[in-house]
Write a structure and sequence with these properties.
Layout lengths: L21 E5 L2 E4 L4 E4 L2 H4 L8 H11 L12 H12 L5 E5 L2 H19 L6 E5 L8 H6 L16 E4 L4 H7 L4 E6 L2 E2 L5 E2 L2 H14 L2 E5 L23 E4 L10 E5 L20 H16 L2 H20 L5 E7 L2 E6 L4 H9 L2 E2 L1 E2 L4 E4 L7 H20 L1
Parallel strand pairs: 3-15, 5-6, 5-7, 7-10, 10-11
Antiparallel strand pairs: 1-2, 2-3, 4-12, 8-9, 11-12, 13-14, 14-17, 16-17
Length: 396
Protein backbone atom coordinates (compact mmCIF):
# COMPACT_ATOMS: atom_id res chain seq x y z
CA UNK A 1 0.00 0.00 0.00
CA UNK A 2 1.31 3.47 -0.86
CA UNK A 3 2.15 5.96 1.87
CA UNK A 4 -0.48 8.50 2.85
CA UNK A 5 -0.44 11.60 0.66
CA UNK A 6 -1.87 15.08 0.79
CA UNK A 7 -4.75 15.79 -1.58
CA UNK A 8 -2.40 17.67 -3.92
CA UNK A 9 0.10 14.78 -3.92
CA UNK A 10 -2.62 12.39 -5.04
CA UNK A 11 -2.41 13.95 -8.53
CA UNK A 12 0.27 13.38 -11.13
CA UNK A 13 2.39 16.52 -11.56
CA UNK A 14 1.36 17.18 -15.19
CA UNK A 15 0.58 20.86 -14.58
CA UNK A 16 2.77 23.69 -13.27
CA UNK A 17 -0.02 25.04 -11.10
CA UNK A 18 -0.23 28.52 -9.61
CA UNK A 19 -0.70 28.55 -5.81
CA UNK A 20 -4.32 29.67 -6.14
CA UNK A 21 -7.48 27.70 -5.45
CA UNK A 22 -10.36 29.37 -7.28
CA UNK A 23 -13.74 28.46 -5.81
CA UNK A 24 -16.35 30.83 -7.26
CA UNK A 25 -16.98 32.64 -10.52
CA UNK A 26 -19.48 35.15 -11.85
CA UNK A 27 -19.22 37.01 -15.15
CA UNK A 28 -15.66 38.33 -15.52
CA UNK A 29 -14.72 37.69 -11.90
CA UNK A 30 -13.29 34.82 -9.84
CA UNK A 31 -12.75 34.39 -6.10
CA UNK A 32 -10.16 32.20 -4.40
CA UNK A 33 -10.57 30.19 -1.21
CA UNK A 34 -9.23 33.14 0.80
CA UNK A 35 -11.94 35.45 -0.53
CA UNK A 36 -9.67 37.44 -2.86
CA UNK A 37 -11.32 38.68 -6.07
CA UNK A 38 -9.68 38.44 -9.51
CA UNK A 39 -10.52 39.93 -12.90
CA UNK A 40 -10.37 36.92 -15.23
CA UNK A 41 -8.62 37.56 -18.54
CA UNK A 42 -7.96 33.85 -19.10
CA UNK A 43 -11.50 32.45 -19.30
CA UNK A 44 -10.19 28.98 -18.48
CA UNK A 45 -7.97 29.34 -21.58
CA UNK A 46 -10.72 30.54 -23.97
CA UNK A 47 -13.44 28.31 -22.49
CA UNK A 48 -15.86 30.47 -20.52
CA UNK A 49 -16.62 32.72 -23.49
CA UNK A 50 -19.96 33.79 -22.00
CA UNK A 51 -18.43 34.50 -18.60
CA UNK A 52 -18.61 32.39 -15.47
CA UNK A 53 -21.93 30.70 -14.63
CA UNK A 54 -24.07 32.41 -17.31
CA UNK A 55 -27.73 32.21 -16.30
CA UNK A 56 -29.10 30.82 -19.57
CA UNK A 57 -26.54 28.00 -19.68
CA UNK A 58 -27.06 27.19 -16.02
CA UNK A 59 -30.81 26.98 -16.56
CA UNK A 60 -30.41 24.55 -19.48
CA UNK A 61 -27.95 22.43 -17.51
CA UNK A 62 -30.12 22.25 -14.41
CA UNK A 63 -33.17 21.32 -16.48
CA UNK A 64 -31.28 18.47 -18.15
CA UNK A 65 -29.83 17.24 -14.85
CA UNK A 66 -33.39 16.68 -13.65
CA UNK A 67 -34.29 14.63 -16.75
CA UNK A 68 -31.53 12.41 -18.19
CA UNK A 69 -27.76 12.27 -17.84
CA UNK A 70 -26.49 9.45 -20.05
CA UNK A 71 -27.74 6.65 -22.25
CA UNK A 72 -25.54 5.61 -25.17
CA UNK A 73 -24.95 6.61 -28.76
CA UNK A 74 -26.70 3.36 -29.68
CA UNK A 75 -29.91 5.37 -29.19
CA UNK A 76 -31.31 8.54 -30.71
CA UNK A 77 -30.34 11.55 -28.58
CA UNK A 78 -32.60 14.50 -29.45
CA UNK A 79 -30.36 17.10 -27.77
CA UNK A 80 -27.40 15.87 -29.78
CA UNK A 81 -29.29 16.08 -33.05
CA UNK A 82 -30.59 19.56 -32.24
CA UNK A 83 -27.12 20.77 -31.20
CA UNK A 84 -25.65 19.36 -34.40
CA UNK A 85 -28.30 21.15 -36.46
CA UNK A 86 -27.55 24.43 -34.70
CA UNK A 87 -23.89 24.06 -35.68
CA UNK A 88 -24.63 23.20 -39.31
CA UNK A 89 -27.34 25.88 -39.63
CA UNK A 90 -24.83 28.49 -38.53
CA UNK A 91 -21.75 27.29 -40.42
CA UNK A 92 -20.53 25.91 -43.74
CA UNK A 93 -20.53 22.39 -42.28
CA UNK A 94 -23.08 19.67 -42.94
CA UNK A 95 -22.45 16.86 -40.41
CA UNK A 96 -21.16 16.80 -36.83
CA UNK A 97 -19.39 14.25 -34.64
CA UNK A 98 -19.49 15.04 -30.90
CA UNK A 99 -16.69 14.09 -28.51
CA UNK A 100 -15.27 15.38 -25.22
CA UNK A 101 -12.29 17.63 -25.97
CA UNK A 102 -10.32 19.52 -28.58
CA UNK A 103 -7.71 16.80 -28.89
CA UNK A 104 -10.44 14.24 -29.56
CA UNK A 105 -12.03 16.51 -32.15
CA UNK A 106 -8.70 16.90 -33.95
CA UNK A 107 -8.04 13.16 -33.68
CA UNK A 108 -11.42 12.55 -35.31
CA UNK A 109 -10.57 15.03 -38.07
CA UNK A 110 -7.30 13.23 -38.82
CA UNK A 111 -9.05 9.85 -38.86
CA UNK A 112 -11.86 11.09 -41.10
CA UNK A 113 -9.42 12.66 -43.58
CA UNK A 114 -7.44 9.43 -43.90
CA UNK A 115 -10.46 7.15 -44.03
CA UNK A 116 -12.24 9.28 -46.61
CA UNK A 117 -9.20 9.40 -48.88
CA UNK A 118 -8.41 5.69 -48.53
CA UNK A 119 -11.84 4.03 -48.44
CA UNK A 120 -14.08 6.49 -50.30
CA UNK A 121 -11.69 8.09 -52.80
CA UNK A 122 -9.51 4.93 -52.79
CA UNK A 123 -6.33 6.87 -53.50
CA UNK A 124 -4.23 5.63 -50.56
CA UNK A 125 -3.48 9.11 -49.24
CA UNK A 126 -2.59 9.35 -45.53
CA UNK A 127 -0.19 12.23 -44.87
CA UNK A 128 -1.31 15.29 -42.87
CA UNK A 129 0.60 18.56 -43.36
CA UNK A 130 0.72 20.87 -40.32
CA UNK A 131 2.68 23.98 -39.38
CA UNK A 132 5.51 25.05 -37.10
CA UNK A 133 4.37 26.63 -33.80
CA UNK A 134 0.91 25.06 -34.13
CA UNK A 135 -0.85 23.27 -31.28
CA UNK A 136 -3.42 20.54 -31.92
CA UNK A 137 -3.59 18.46 -28.73
CA UNK A 138 -1.96 15.93 -26.45
CA UNK A 139 -2.93 12.54 -27.87
CA UNK A 140 -0.14 10.75 -29.73
CA UNK A 141 -1.54 11.74 -33.12
CA UNK A 142 -2.35 15.34 -32.21
CA UNK A 143 0.94 16.02 -30.43
CA UNK A 144 2.69 14.66 -33.53
CA UNK A 145 0.61 17.06 -35.62
CA UNK A 146 1.61 19.90 -33.27
CA UNK A 147 4.51 21.99 -34.56
CA UNK A 148 6.26 22.40 -31.19
CA UNK A 149 9.06 20.06 -30.11
CA UNK A 150 8.43 20.56 -26.38
CA UNK A 151 5.12 18.65 -26.41
CA UNK A 152 6.77 15.62 -28.09
CA UNK A 153 9.66 15.08 -25.70
CA UNK A 154 9.76 11.55 -24.30
CA UNK A 155 6.91 10.15 -26.39
CA UNK A 156 8.89 8.46 -29.19
CA UNK A 157 8.26 6.65 -31.39
CA UNK A 158 5.69 9.07 -32.76
CA UNK A 159 3.10 7.98 -35.34
CA UNK A 160 4.08 8.37 -38.97
CA UNK A 161 2.20 10.22 -41.66
CA UNK A 162 2.72 13.82 -40.52
CA UNK A 163 4.80 16.58 -42.09
CA UNK A 164 5.36 19.96 -40.42
CA UNK A 165 6.35 23.05 -42.43
CA UNK A 166 6.71 26.83 -41.82
CA UNK A 167 3.52 28.90 -41.94
CA UNK A 168 2.94 31.57 -44.60
CA UNK A 169 5.56 30.21 -47.05
CA UNK A 170 3.66 29.14 -50.16
CA UNK A 171 6.69 27.79 -52.03
CA UNK A 172 7.45 25.41 -49.15
CA UNK A 173 3.79 24.33 -49.06
CA UNK A 174 3.81 23.52 -52.77
CA UNK A 175 6.98 21.47 -52.44
CA UNK A 176 5.63 19.60 -49.40
CA UNK A 177 2.55 18.29 -51.19
CA UNK A 178 2.76 14.86 -52.78
CA UNK A 179 0.44 12.11 -53.99
CA UNK A 180 0.36 10.92 -50.36
CA UNK A 181 -1.08 14.17 -48.95
CA UNK A 182 -4.53 13.58 -47.48
CA UNK A 183 -5.08 16.90 -45.70
CA UNK A 184 -3.61 20.20 -44.57
CA UNK A 185 -4.43 21.14 -40.96
CA UNK A 186 -3.96 24.58 -39.43
CA UNK A 187 -5.12 27.16 -36.90
CA UNK A 188 -6.10 30.56 -38.30
CA UNK A 189 -4.59 32.22 -35.25
CA UNK A 190 -1.76 30.24 -33.70
CA UNK A 191 -2.78 30.79 -30.10
CA UNK A 192 -0.41 28.59 -28.08
CA UNK A 193 2.31 29.46 -30.58
CA UNK A 194 2.34 33.21 -29.85
CA UNK A 195 -0.94 34.74 -31.19
CA UNK A 196 -0.04 34.73 -34.88
CA UNK A 197 -2.96 35.22 -37.32
CA UNK A 198 -2.41 33.46 -40.65
CA UNK A 199 -1.74 35.67 -43.66
CA UNK A 200 -4.99 36.05 -45.64
CA UNK A 201 -3.39 35.83 -49.09
CA UNK A 202 -1.47 32.73 -48.07
CA UNK A 203 -4.58 31.06 -46.68
CA UNK A 204 -6.62 31.72 -49.80
CA UNK A 205 -3.87 30.32 -52.01
CA UNK A 206 -3.58 27.32 -49.70
CA UNK A 207 -7.33 26.68 -49.87
CA UNK A 208 -7.31 26.94 -53.67
CA UNK A 209 -4.38 24.54 -53.90
CA UNK A 210 -6.11 22.00 -51.66
CA UNK A 211 -9.23 22.14 -53.79
CA UNK A 212 -7.24 21.74 -57.00
CA UNK A 213 -5.25 18.76 -55.68
CA UNK A 214 -8.12 16.96 -53.91
CA UNK A 215 -6.55 17.60 -50.50
CA UNK A 216 -8.84 18.16 -47.52
CA UNK A 217 -8.53 21.43 -45.62
CA UNK A 218 -8.89 21.02 -41.83
CA UNK A 219 -9.20 24.16 -39.71
CA UNK A 220 -8.57 23.76 -35.98
CA UNK A 221 -11.06 26.15 -34.34
CA UNK A 222 -10.59 24.80 -30.81
CA UNK A 223 -9.41 28.16 -29.43
CA UNK A 224 -10.56 30.49 -32.22
CA UNK A 225 -14.13 29.20 -32.55
CA UNK A 226 -17.34 30.16 -30.74
CA UNK A 227 -17.05 33.90 -31.24
CA UNK A 228 -13.56 34.37 -29.80
CA UNK A 229 -12.14 36.18 -32.86
CA UNK A 230 -15.17 38.35 -33.63
CA UNK A 231 -16.91 35.83 -35.88
CA UNK A 232 -18.67 32.66 -34.74
CA UNK A 233 -15.84 30.76 -36.46
CA UNK A 234 -12.48 32.29 -37.40
CA UNK A 235 -12.55 30.96 -40.97
CA UNK A 236 -15.44 33.36 -41.68
CA UNK A 237 -12.93 36.24 -41.58
CA UNK A 238 -11.12 34.78 -44.56
CA UNK A 239 -13.98 33.82 -46.86
CA UNK A 240 -12.97 30.15 -47.04
CA UNK A 241 -14.95 26.99 -46.35
CA UNK A 242 -12.89 24.21 -44.77
CA UNK A 243 -13.75 20.60 -45.53
CA UNK A 244 -13.48 19.89 -41.80
CA UNK A 245 -13.27 22.15 -38.77
CA UNK A 246 -13.02 21.31 -35.09
CA UNK A 247 -14.51 22.87 -31.95
CA UNK A 248 -14.21 22.54 -28.17
CA UNK A 249 -13.34 25.07 -25.42
CA UNK A 250 -16.08 27.73 -25.79
CA UNK A 251 -18.54 25.25 -27.29
CA UNK A 252 -19.68 24.11 -23.83
CA UNK A 253 -19.22 27.28 -21.76
CA UNK A 254 -17.09 25.28 -19.31
CA UNK A 255 -18.76 21.89 -19.70
CA UNK A 256 -16.36 19.43 -21.44
CA UNK A 257 -17.43 18.85 -25.03
CA UNK A 258 -15.84 18.84 -28.48
CA UNK A 259 -17.07 18.53 -32.03
CA UNK A 260 -15.77 17.80 -35.50
CA UNK A 261 -17.76 19.37 -38.33
CA UNK A 262 -17.49 18.08 -41.90
CA UNK A 263 -18.80 18.76 -45.38
CA UNK A 264 -21.57 16.54 -46.74
CA UNK A 265 -19.37 14.53 -49.10
CA UNK A 266 -17.25 13.34 -46.18
CA UNK A 267 -20.20 11.64 -44.50
CA UNK A 268 -19.29 8.38 -46.26
CA UNK A 269 -15.91 8.40 -44.54
CA UNK A 270 -17.41 7.76 -41.12
CA UNK A 271 -19.83 4.89 -41.65
CA UNK A 272 -21.42 3.08 -38.69
CA UNK A 273 -18.78 1.53 -36.43
CA UNK A 274 -15.84 3.44 -37.89
CA UNK A 275 -15.44 5.83 -34.96
CA UNK A 276 -17.11 6.49 -31.63
CA UNK A 277 -17.04 7.92 -28.12
CA UNK A 278 -18.81 6.63 -25.03
CA UNK A 279 -19.37 10.11 -23.64
CA UNK A 280 -19.49 12.03 -26.93
CA UNK A 281 -22.64 14.13 -27.21
CA UNK A 282 -24.43 13.12 -24.02
CA UNK A 283 -27.82 14.66 -23.25
CA UNK A 284 -26.14 16.89 -20.63
CA UNK A 285 -23.28 18.06 -22.85
CA UNK A 286 -25.46 18.83 -25.83
CA UNK A 287 -28.05 20.66 -23.73
CA UNK A 288 -25.21 23.03 -22.82
CA UNK A 289 -24.05 23.26 -26.44
CA UNK A 290 -27.57 24.17 -27.56
CA UNK A 291 -27.90 26.93 -24.97
CA UNK A 292 -24.41 28.25 -25.75
CA UNK A 293 -24.95 28.47 -29.51
CA UNK A 294 -28.44 29.93 -29.13
CA UNK A 295 -27.03 32.63 -26.87
CA UNK A 296 -24.13 33.33 -29.23
CA UNK A 297 -26.39 33.69 -32.25
CA UNK A 298 -29.44 35.41 -30.75
CA UNK A 299 -27.41 37.97 -28.79
CA UNK A 300 -24.80 38.44 -31.56
CA UNK A 301 -21.98 37.75 -29.13
CA UNK A 302 -19.25 37.49 -31.82
CA UNK A 303 -19.92 41.09 -32.92
CA UNK A 304 -19.43 42.21 -29.32
CA UNK A 305 -16.15 40.29 -29.20
CA UNK A 306 -15.00 42.14 -32.32
CA UNK A 307 -15.93 45.52 -30.82
CA UNK A 308 -14.37 44.82 -27.43
CA UNK A 309 -11.29 43.31 -29.04
CA UNK A 310 -10.76 46.51 -31.02
CA UNK A 311 -11.15 48.52 -27.82
CA UNK A 312 -8.74 46.32 -25.85
CA UNK A 313 -6.04 46.32 -28.54
CA UNK A 314 -6.54 50.04 -29.14
CA UNK A 315 -6.06 50.84 -25.45
CA UNK A 316 -2.99 48.62 -25.22
CA UNK A 317 -1.38 50.09 -28.34
CA UNK A 318 -2.05 53.63 -27.18
CA UNK A 319 -0.78 53.19 -23.63
CA UNK A 320 2.19 50.96 -24.52
CA UNK A 321 3.34 53.03 -27.49
CA UNK A 322 7.08 53.56 -27.25
CA UNK A 323 7.50 51.07 -24.39
CA UNK A 324 10.96 49.56 -24.80
CA UNK A 325 9.84 46.17 -23.42
CA UNK A 326 7.04 45.67 -25.99
CA UNK A 327 7.46 44.56 -29.58
CA UNK A 328 3.84 44.36 -30.74
CA UNK A 329 0.21 44.06 -29.71
CA UNK A 330 -1.51 41.59 -32.05
CA UNK A 331 -4.52 39.35 -32.29
CA UNK A 332 -8.03 38.94 -33.63
CA UNK A 333 -11.16 39.79 -31.66
CA UNK A 334 -10.61 38.88 -28.01
CA UNK A 335 -7.65 36.60 -28.70
CA UNK A 336 -4.94 39.14 -27.95
CA UNK A 337 -1.19 38.91 -27.50
CA UNK A 338 1.37 41.39 -26.17
CA UNK A 339 4.68 40.30 -27.69
CA UNK A 340 7.61 41.36 -25.52
CA UNK A 341 11.39 41.38 -25.82
CA UNK A 342 12.04 39.09 -22.85
CA UNK A 343 10.25 36.33 -20.91
CA UNK A 344 6.99 37.43 -19.29
CA UNK A 345 6.35 34.71 -16.70
CA UNK A 346 7.09 37.12 -13.84
CA UNK A 347 4.49 39.55 -15.17
CA UNK A 348 1.83 36.82 -15.06
CA UNK A 349 2.58 36.18 -11.36
CA UNK A 350 2.70 39.89 -10.53
CA UNK A 351 -0.63 40.39 -12.32
CA UNK A 352 -2.18 37.74 -10.05
CA UNK A 353 -0.96 39.69 -7.05
CA UNK A 354 -2.70 42.74 -8.53
CA UNK A 355 -5.94 40.78 -8.98
CA UNK A 356 -5.67 40.08 -12.74
CA UNK A 357 -5.47 36.59 -14.28
CA UNK A 358 -3.62 36.30 -17.59
CA UNK A 359 -1.55 33.61 -19.32
CA UNK A 360 1.39 33.33 -21.69
CA UNK A 361 1.56 32.17 -25.31
CA UNK A 362 5.16 31.09 -25.47
CA UNK A 363 7.86 32.57 -23.22
CA UNK A 364 7.69 36.17 -24.46
CA UNK A 365 3.99 36.75 -25.17
CA UNK A 366 1.24 37.73 -22.74
CA UNK A 367 -2.07 36.21 -23.83
CA UNK A 368 -5.33 37.97 -22.98
CA UNK A 369 -8.58 35.99 -23.21
CA UNK A 370 -11.39 37.85 -21.47
CA UNK A 371 -14.94 36.61 -21.87
CA UNK A 372 -16.81 37.94 -24.89
CA UNK A 373 -19.14 40.08 -22.77
CA UNK A 374 -16.29 41.93 -21.04
CA UNK A 375 -17.08 45.60 -20.36
CA UNK A 376 -15.03 48.71 -21.15
CA UNK A 377 -14.56 49.31 -17.43
CA UNK A 378 -13.18 45.80 -16.96
CA UNK A 379 -10.86 46.28 -19.93
CA UNK A 380 -9.68 49.61 -18.51
CA UNK A 381 -8.91 47.95 -15.18
CA UNK A 382 -6.90 45.19 -16.85
CA UNK A 383 -5.02 47.61 -19.10
CA UNK A 384 -4.11 49.81 -16.14
CA UNK A 385 -2.58 46.83 -14.32
CA UNK A 386 -0.78 45.56 -17.40
CA UNK A 387 0.69 48.95 -18.33
CA UNK A 388 2.00 49.41 -14.78
CA UNK A 389 3.68 45.97 -14.77
CA UNK A 390 5.09 46.31 -18.30
CA UNK A 391 6.44 49.78 -17.48
CA UNK A 392 8.16 48.26 -14.45
CA UNK A 393 9.66 45.52 -16.65
CA UNK A 394 10.92 48.13 -19.11
CA UNK A 395 12.61 50.06 -16.30
CA UNK A 396 14.62 47.06 -15.09
Amino acid sequence: MSTEKTAAEALLPTYARFPLALVKGEGSWLWDDQGKKYLDFMSGIAVTNLGHAPARIKEALNKQLDELWHVSNLFQIPNQQEAGKLITDNSCGDAVFFCNSGAEANEAAIKLARRYQQLVKQNGRFEIITFEQSFHGRTLATLTATGQAKVKEGFAPLPGGFKTIPLNDYAVLESAISDQTAAVMLELVQAEGGIHPVDADYLNKLAALCKKEGILLIVDEIQTGMGRTGKLFAHEHYGIEPDIFTLAKGLGSGFPVGAMVAKEELREGFSAGSHGSTFGGTPIATAVVKATIETMVEENIPANAAKQGDYLMGQLREKLAGNSFVEEVRGLGLLVGIACKAPVGDIVVKAQNEGLLIITAGPNVLRLLPNLLVTNDEIDTAVQILVKLIDEAAAQ
